[in-house]
Known about the structure:
This protein is mainly alpha-helical and 414 residues long. It has helices spanning 13-45, 50-53, 55-76, 81-99, 105-123, 125-136, 141-147, 151-167, 169-187, 208-212, 215-244, 249-277, 279-294, 303-332, 337-347, 349-366, 370-387, 390-397.
Amino acid sequence: MTGAQQSPPPPGAWRMAALALLMQNSATGLTFGSFGAIVLAIQSQFHTTRTYASLGVSLAVVTLSLLAPFLGTMLVRRVPIRRVMIAGLLLGAAGYALLAWVSDIRALLAIYLLIIGPSLVMFGALPSNTLVSSWFGDRPGRALGLVNMPLFVSLVPLASAAILGAHGLSAVFACVAVTHLIVLPFAFAVRDGPYAAAGPGKDLGAGSGAILARPEFWLLAVGGGIIVGAGIMKISHLVAIVTGQGHSAATATMLLAISGGAGMLGSPLFGWLADRIGGVGALIANALLQSATFFILLAPVGVPALVVDAVLIGACGAGVSATQGVIFSHLFGPANFARVFGLMSIATLPFLFGMTPLAGLLYDRSGSYALPVAVTIAMLFTAALVLLPLLGAERRLRRPAGFARGTGVSFSKE
Length: 414
């Protein structure tokens, strides 16, 4: 499994990876990057609690997770990824245009649930990572590391804070809507790769029941769900945590940008590491490093310590997607990537949805972020322990480079 054994990717593969990078960043960067900078403005403008103000992004994740298995099945059966991405961008633009006009917190939450969430699943992580898998087969680590680099997460908080200060919350939503339309023409250049499951009407991937019957799937769901949920919680609450410690909003926004910038290093680094030592080992290392960095937030600290935290947590958070993508290919095969990705999205829903509002609830009850941060640390240690049994499973099932030319099915299709 050395680098010398790798065959080069097909012509055009890295161009598709670049397009996937743009789509992935447009989906996750615009939504999660902007939300961390505006959560306090939502609380103030809509006269609500911190719990409800931080609920919007979690509701979007709920819809994303519920729809992902359906979309994953569609992609396995070869609905062109290009069409799905175009529809998602148009839907996202419409959703943010509506957010610019609403004045009731219930309407805002409904838009995140019913429009923003579906748009994310249609042009975000699932189709972008599936596109890479269809071009790079069973060795997607480096490409997934590129695609999941959070370029926009480092830029959007700064832009959102500037627009918010100058023109208000509605202007932030309007600018995000326009950005969706700017990205739209690039979606027309997307093409499925040679390692896609099959032609129209065929399905070479394993059935959902066969995937769900494997204990490896559920161990990864619990461990990976905790790690991703902790990252979403951190992005959503970082500004509130830092300002609550007495630092300025400008400092908090700067830390968000630093965290996003660190992800540009962390994503390819963890992708490379997953290709070298396996995705499970890289994911366990990720969980342990994240848990260690969260200790910095247990008590008020100076800006240098917060910068260290932002760098490490940004690198780890950005590395999760690439690492999980490698695990999907190793344990289930490239042809099953979209379906496993979709099923995993709903299996991890309790963590992706619950950890952000839980942190808000614990804050409202205790009056401090010390309790929610401590709970997150404990959960990350638990995630590392849960993932340990998968180390041996990945070593046994990890395919050679030539495996990508096949279907990747190691268990019977239902």
